[in-house]
Amino acid sequence: MRYGYFDNKNREYVIDRVNTPVPWTNYIGVNDICAVLSQTADGYVFYQSPQYHRITRFRPNAPISRPGHYVYLRDDDTGEYWSISWQPVGKDLTKAKYECRHGLSYSKYRCDYQDISASQTVFIPLNEPVELWDVVLKNNGTRPRRLSVYSYLEFSFHQIDMDNQNFQMSLYASGSSYADGIIEYDLYYEELGYQWFTSSFEPDGFDCLRDSFLGAYRDESNPVAVEKGECSGSFEKTGNHCAVLQKKLVLQPGEDVRLTFLLGEGKREAAVSVRKKYSDPANVDKAFSDLAAFWEEKLGKLQVGTPNQGMNTSLNIWNLYQSEVNILFSRFASFVEVGGRTGLGFRDTSQDAMTIASSNPEKCRKRIVELCRGLTQQGYGLHLFQPEWFDPKLRGKQQSFKSPTVVPTPSREEMIHSIKDACSDDALWLIAAISEYIKETGEVSLLDETVTYADGGEDTVYQHMMRILDFSDKQVGATGICKGLRADWNDCLNLGGGESAMVSFLHYWAIRHFLDLSRFIGKTEETEKYEKMAAKVKKACNDNLWDGEWYIRGITANGRKIGTHNDQEGKVHIESNTWAVFSGVADPDRAVKAMDSVDKYLYTKYGLMLNAPSYTKSDDEIGFVTRVYPGVKENGSIFSHPNPWAWCAEATLGRGDRAMKFYNALLPYNQNDEIEVRQSEPYSYCQFVMGKDHTAFGRARHPFMTGSGGWAYFAATRYLLGVRPDFDCLIVDPCIPKDWSGFDVTRVWRGAAYQIHVENPSGVSKGVKTIELDGKAVSGGIPVQKAGTQHRVKVVMG
């Protein structure tokens, strides 16, 4: 069953059946202010932090997601009313036509009902803390229409925990007022706790109190003010507050009108100039075109043309967009993670920074520095922390609720977790993030930048990298395999004092990244030490982790191996086997056997399961994973994040057909006509898909906020299509299906543009016979070219 389609020309996903099985969300905003909105305009907006500076209220996990950012229309002759987005009024879909277009940092809602066509485009200008609702109405009938237009949103107390729990504070420390066409929302306990809402027109009515606008025993679907056709002019200190502005219109046949609603940060005075600016439709159009140009520049860094249309749509638009949303907003703003916690997850943010350095090097660099500050002197990272804790600009200043960007600062003891709280994989990801950033930008000087540690002291970024590698070298068990500590990426596989196969493979991979970097910059004094370390790790892995057909997952604190041929449950795990191959630990024979086992035991038509068979018997020696329902999340689901690791592993083996088989299975695009199964968005990778041991096999959950997006982009572009930067050249080394005759890639690298055309006359999966740069043969990689220049690259496989 299909609920929408991909409009690649406009870079939109068009939802023409708006009653989707679950909300289909989008992210609005690219800087300080951000909104998460669904296909029915439900959702919320926040400023910098969804936990500490929520602006509008949202009730999660409800039968109908509400409230949102709504526009009501009322026929003042008949009294009938509806909303431009299908919800909250919810008109009969056989009598009214609704559509939502989710675009890049905007959503557009359209409605045709009783000869009135209406649209509401919600977006946030690039560099202003204001959300715009661009509303257009047109009378398509033959008679004049008297209409009333009403905005609606519900304000939230900034501190989300107080908003949800502490009504003694939130209800009695918030107020609202109206003057000169502007609603002001005031949080009394916060010196700068103000928002405003206004419009491009002079209102004919207003309401600031939610309960007055909605009425007793009503909700957003049937507000009493809209039903009556008149607002009550309500406002008050204390209570629940909303932003309703009413405008009465008369539209002649064929006439249209354009209105703008604005939601912004600050006191009423701040709204005056912004209101004046966006009362001119030309300025609204300019802000929208600037937003489009912002994304055009990002997407233009890498565009592909392959025989796989789903891959083209994903890589050219949606996969990068999802990855950018993650690096911009971390993981804690969605309809699932609704702001109850915020900050940077060390492992998540490291991988986000690694995977999209091409489109957002500035943000990736910022994240790398923040992560270095979140590293302890011992070499492990704080699993979750606020960058503000270690920002030199804020250090030593007394923080209070006076700042709109405030994040309460814990004590030094609270900040610096003991090693018992450390996750063994966290910091290792940062090694590759730094390496990939330098490959992309050439900014070797980053390594010499001095950055503090979380627990005091400072060092260069390069020294931070060595601390990370040395920490994992010391934290090993009896067999020389890295300890699992609190967790090792799989948070539910709590090996504790046991040993993690995945982390040892990851350690080896990180050492290889570091060695390549140290050789490139001539730091040969470290080379010998880390070459010996790498050899030791590789030997320990191959001596202790091979089980005959695949690599085991780990060793418990009591010395029991898990993920062996003797196990009835959790026999084969994706993490250890893909990383054994991708890291380079496995020799060719073992690598082939390991990935054959992944295909045999873990493959499904919706992607690769995390482990199989699922655990059904609780076993605390292994961890909480054995208490998760079979086929759900960490216990036998199709966990999306590690799926691209399998694509990379198969690409290193040169098996393009299988790599593409795995890629296509997980690709959301390919489930667009199976929404009765998938349910979730077909334009976003989801955290997981229910595995075959669950009755809802194929159902996807938790879109957008997952490392799956970044890894899918990284794996597909750099290992399947094989276009990836090195420190001093651009490598083209594809691994594709044998029946592909070729493909094209446009890649901007260090300011130069490369039009890469790949031909596959011999029908191979891997292997490059010749490379030409501007008609001249080159060997190895493509040398760095002058910024601002354009070049043609021809690659013949064979």
TrEMBL record:
Keywords: Glycosyltransferase, Transferase. This is N,N'-diacetylchitobiose phosphorylase. Pfam families: GH94_b-supersand, Glyco_hydro_94. Residues 11-281 form the Glycosyl hydrolase 94 supersandwich domain. PANTHER family: CELLOBIONIC ACID PHOSPHORYLASE-RELATED, PUTATIVE-RELATED. Residues 294-722 form the Glycosyl hydrolase 94 catalytic domain. SUPFAM superfamilies: Galactose mutarotase-like (SSF74650), Six-hairpin glycosidases (SSF48208). It comes from the Bacteria. The keyword Ubl conjugation does not apply.
